[in-house]
Amino acid sequence: MKIGYKLVAEAFGPQELIRQAVRAEQAGFDFVEMSDHFHPWVEAQGHSPFVWSVLGAIAAKTTTLGLATGVTCPSVRYHPAIIAQAAATLALISDGRFTLGLGSGERLNEHIVGRGFPGVHERHRMFNEALEIIRLLFEGGYQNYDGAYLKLEDARIFDLPAAALPLAIAVSGPDSIALAAKHGDGLFAVEPDPDLVTGYRDAGGTGPLYCEAPLAWAPTEEAAVRAAHSTNAWSVTGWKVMAELPNPVNFEAAAGTVREDDIRQQYACGPDVERHLEVIGQFTDAGFDHIALMNAGDDPDGFFDFFESELRPRLLAQSTPAPTARRAP
């Protein structure tokens, strides 16, 4: 099992995210992942820097920390050729530490270029074409593509990493699972749903299984619940809501009926390590092996101290196989 740290790009500016990534490496995290947003979810979060600049700076300031986008939509706001070039460059400057997480997108970020945001089935067809283009470009040489939605003309990425750059595909149901098994080297999910894992494996998918575990550290449970409720109430509304709303104000309205008790049910809130292990355990029990811890509390350094001193030792103990008893001669 690999333990990651979710860089909450909607809640912190770029310099602070870089500082947190350096601290995450020092605290013993295996990787960091960062969303690729244009907008924050709600105005109270107040940030949304460009992920590729931030991850590039993190790559230069760390040595062992894995990096991942969690996740990038390569088919509406971006053309997939641009994402393929950006990912190849980041893989090179990080010495092979980068995983390209990809998904079909949310209206929140993709509508801003004025191309509209298609329905889910059309999104998946566009996403399939984008994945085919990225794979073509990673093969090297000049490439062309003539799809129903996306085109590529005499394009070549000149700086490609020697080793294959892994793709982790976001999944939420059968259609996206099929795309992940076809094009991906791993999957990415935000729910502790074992059917996503088994569906991916049954479809022939291999590789790491990424997820995000919702935590909120604070010295008291009440403080953690208040912090998570003020900035992350939207997260309990479900993926159909999260994919379709256009702006932070809409997410604020959608989250208006979310209670603090709803946060308590989904998030591990406060300083109790057992509750944090319980929430993380939902994902490991479902079969995920790359667990990104998303701290919705407002004290990241307090969370890092808690992770180092209490949570990480317990997670390591759980993931270490028990020694096999030796038989007497």
From TrEMBL:
Checking InterPro entries in the record gives:
F420-G6PD/mer, F420_G6P_DH-rel, Luciferase-like_dom, Luciferase-like_sf
Record carries keyword Hydrolase: no
Per its record, what are the GO molecular function terms? oxidoreductase activity, acting on paired donors, with incorporation or reduction of molecular oxygen
- A Pfam family recorded for this sequence: Bac_luciferase
Do the record's keywords include Nuclease? no
Provide the alphabetized UniProt keywords.
Oxidoreductase
The chain positions of domain Luciferase-like read: 7-290
* NCBIfam families referenced in this protein's UniProt entry, alphabetically: F420_G6P_family
Q: What is this protein called?
A: LLM class F420-dependent oxidoreductase
Per the UniProt entry, what species is this protein from, by scientific name? Cryobacterium arcticum
Q: Provide the organism lineage as a comma list.
A: Bacteria, Bacillati, Actinomycetota, Actinomycetes, Micrococcales
